[in-house]
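A quick aside before the break. I want you to see a complete sequence-to-structure record at least once, exactly as it would be stored in a machine-readable document. Don't worry about memorizing anything.
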Amino acid sequence: IAVEGRSLDARLSLVDVKVDLDVQNPRDYPYLAYFSDPQEWMVLVRQPHCWRFLFPLPPGAAEPSHEQFKSKVLGFIGSVGDLEVLNTVTYRIHHRIASEWRRDRVFLMGDAAHLITPMWALGLNTGILDAISLPWRLAWVLRGWSHEGLLDDYGREQQPVAAKGSGEMAEAARRYMSGQNDAMKAMSGSAFGNALTRTMLGVRLDVDHSGDWTMVKTGREALRVGDRVPDAELHGPDGRPVRLHQLIDDSFVALYFTDARRRPPIPGDVPGLRHAIISRRDAPLDSGLRARSYFDVGDRFRIRAGCEPDTVMLVRPDDHVAAMAPMHSTNIAELYHSAARIKVPAGLPLL
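That is the input. The structure line, written in tokens, reads:
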């Protein structure tokens, strides 16, 4: 499988150092710190057994010796007592993406699918998104529920995020740290939007084949098809707090934002698709709906989602929104069959 893209004329050096920065040489460093000055930048990451330093190596420069690495580290953290260099690695930066993410029974993910500039953990987090996206598709196909086209959707959705999203943003971050501030449009939003972007919680996948995807958020906005739903706190039928993502782990879930007191007609659950009412009101004891109703205090989740009352939201097992529509004019089974490429005709149980 061809790997397309480019290898940059830039190298990074990584050095693991054993040094006490807590007691013997107390520093107030967070677990992840960025140092930058007009001459050079460095990233400092706390590991369980050491401190890890990452900094650029000038073009054409030879790989530093252990003593030079030690001198470089001391230049940033200042004089300390005992310091031992444990390990060093120098590597070239790549921005390369596999041209295919699936061939027959073989799937690529993580570094096998995308080599990304190692900044802001974008390569790692993109790999985690890959690992979240594929398993439920395999399960649906292996159970005989879905067509194999669902497996092809894995690469179709994830490849642009890696190629045009994470990869380009990681390279922009490296250039920003190097003092080249011309490529940081992705970080021009509010603090909330920047936090979603940096953590990749703001990724919108092209789940409906419309070409509408992004990994950049500039502020708080209503959820759209393809967005990842927040892990909202609700209260279950027993009154105990429950996180939304707990409801979605192994199934599609249709969320009905409505008043449970009005006893809305909610379809029965089938394998692969569950239904849940999200309401700021408790379901009456004699409604038959309490076991499937979740209390949304003050409509906080509905307001955060930007949904009008009496909206149904279909969420995939990877926490991304598959569809949104008015409750009373929507056949949720048809939306599910389309989103999951279900083999059986609409209305038939999934056995």
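Two observations worth writing down. The mean pLDDT is 86. The two ends are 37 Å apart (CA to CA). We'll return to this after the break.
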